[in-house]
């Protein structure tokens, strides 16, 4: 921090600071007064960069003891930097880690926001989401071609990208009927496809029975009844069982059965539509 030419004690004295960026782009020089708050300096930086999305960025400085601090947006910049050097730059390894964490946090927050606000992703459990940890779908899948195919179908279902007739009707402004092309009884949404369609009952019954037998041997019968007698719970169990923490020891086995169920329904539906 440097003081621009002026008399000491002048309340209008301006101070100069250097802003360095994580991508090694050209540093910029900015001026601020003794009463300038942190957010004002940050706004100057954003204006220089034409940066609109500010929520995931901030300014840091290094004190005389080489300790790093976030610039407090509600406190005067001068008081935070007084007596502290601003010429020191964080080491490259630290910068790389900081960028890595910032990028991960950004996309993690985007995914969580979409999962909690988009109807198509409402079944995806993000409560325990961690960057670098694969979802139970892939954790439970083997490397065999058939296992990968099952996991791919399941991943489309859980992410809301598996297209059913209700989706086609929605995207075509209801110019296309949402009626199930197999049974012609109800709108073909995810609930209908996985649980209700009579045309797929032969495939569904086998796997539902296997799932129920598995849980009957492991957990309280009342919990099993709650899972299978309420359609919303059964749908959640099939799509993403990690929502149920009390089933944690069974997540892998349940996922393998539910992936097989979804893949079997997918194959049967495809064959009937040919």
UniProtKB/TrEMBL annotation:
BP GO terms, sorted: actomyosin structure organization
InterPro entries with a match to the protein in the record: FERM_domain (IPR000299), FERM_N (IPR018979), Ubiquitin-like_domsf (IPR029071)
GO cellular component terms given for this protein: cytoskeleton
Domain FERM: 15-274
Alphabetized Pfam families for the sequence: FERM_N
Gene3D superfamilies attached to this UniProt entry: Phosphatidylinositol 3-kinase Catalytic Subunit, Chain A, domain 1
Protein name: FERM domain-containing protein
Source organism per UniProt: Mytilus edulis
């Amino acid at each position: 921090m440097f003081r621009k030419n002026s008399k000491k004690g002048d309340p209008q004295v301006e101070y100069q600071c250097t802003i360095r960026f994580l991508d090694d782009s050209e540093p910029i020089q900015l001026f601020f007064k003794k009463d300038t708050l942190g957010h004002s300096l940050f706004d100057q930086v954003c204006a220089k960069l034409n940066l609109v999305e500010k929520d995931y960025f901030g300014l840091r400085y290094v004190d005389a003891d080489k300790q790093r601090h976030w610039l407090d947006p509600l406190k005067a910049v001068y008081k935070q930097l007084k007596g502290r050097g601003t010429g020191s730059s964080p080491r490259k390894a630290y910068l790389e880690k900081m960028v890595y964490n910032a990028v991960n946090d950004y996309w993690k927050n985007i995914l969580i926001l979409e999962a909690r606000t988009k109807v198509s992703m409402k079944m995806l459990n993000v409560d325990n989401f961690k960057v670098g940890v694969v979802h139970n779908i892939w954790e439970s899948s083997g490397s065999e071609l058939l296992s990968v195919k099952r996991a791919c179908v399941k991943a489309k279902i859980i992410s809301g990208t598996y297209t059913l007739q209700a989706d086609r009707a929605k995207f075509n402004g209801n110019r296309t009927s949402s009626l199930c092309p197999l049974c012609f009884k109800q709108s073909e949404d995810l609930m209908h496809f996985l649980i209700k369609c009579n045309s797929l009952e032969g495939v569904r019954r086998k796997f539902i029975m296997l799932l129920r037998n598995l849980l009957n041997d492991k957990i309280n019968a009342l919990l099993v009844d709650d899972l299978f007698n309420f359609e919303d719970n059964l749908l959640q169990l099939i799509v993403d069982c990690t929502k149920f923490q009390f089933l944690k020891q069974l997540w892998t086995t349940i996922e393998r059965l539910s992936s097989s169920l979804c893949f079997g329904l997918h194959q049967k539906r495809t064959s009937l539509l040919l």
